[in-house]
Amino acid sequence: MIRRLAAFALLTGLAACGKPIPPAPTPEQALTLRPAESRVAGLYAESCMACHALPASGAPLVQDRKAWDPRWKQGEAILLDHTIQGYRAMPAGGQCATCAPDDFKAIIRFMAGREDSAI
């Protein structure tokens, strides 16, 4: 019994030792952030940035991991569906008429601060 409790405590402690969540960007920083790939950066600047770089919009701020991590945990299908169909105050397609599903995926990764991850 003591071994099981010790193992549980060790595993619980190790789970808490992950990388810390980076701080949210300031509003000024949010206005300067862009995806690395130029085509995706252009699509982001023409559509998503209008809400996701402005805290007053109510949209999750670009690269604010505290705001994005719960959404990220929902998975690719849900995030992509919310983007394409619209969700709450977000318009369908995020007002990007020229974005394909792969464009949306790249933009979602960027905004969620997960460019190095597949969703």
Describe this structure in words.
This protein is mainly α. It has a single domain, classed as Cytochrome c-like domain (Cytochrome Bc1 Complex, Chain D, domain 2), CATH 1.10.760.10. It is 52% helix and 0% strand. The protein has helices at residues 2-15, 27-30, 38-52, 65-72, 76-85, 101-111. The chain is globular, with a radius of gyration of 17 Å. Mean pLDDT is 87; it is low at 5-16.
Strands, helices and their partners?
Elements: H1 2-15, H2 27-30, H3 38-52, H4 65-72, H5 76-85, H6 101-111
Give average pLDDT, whole number: 87
Q: Give the full name of the CATH homologous superfamily.
A: Cytochrome c-like domain
Number of domains: 1
Q: Structural class of the secondary elements?
A: mainly alpha
What is the straight-line distance between the termini?
39 Å
Per CATH, which architecture? Orthogonal Bundle
CATH topology: Cytochrome Bc1 Complex, Chain D, domain 2
What is the CA-based Rg, rounded? 17 Å
| Helical content band | 40-55%
Q: How many strands appear in the DSSP assignment?
A: 0
Mass-distribution shape: globular
Low-confidence stretches: 5-16
**β-sheet strand percentage:** under 5%
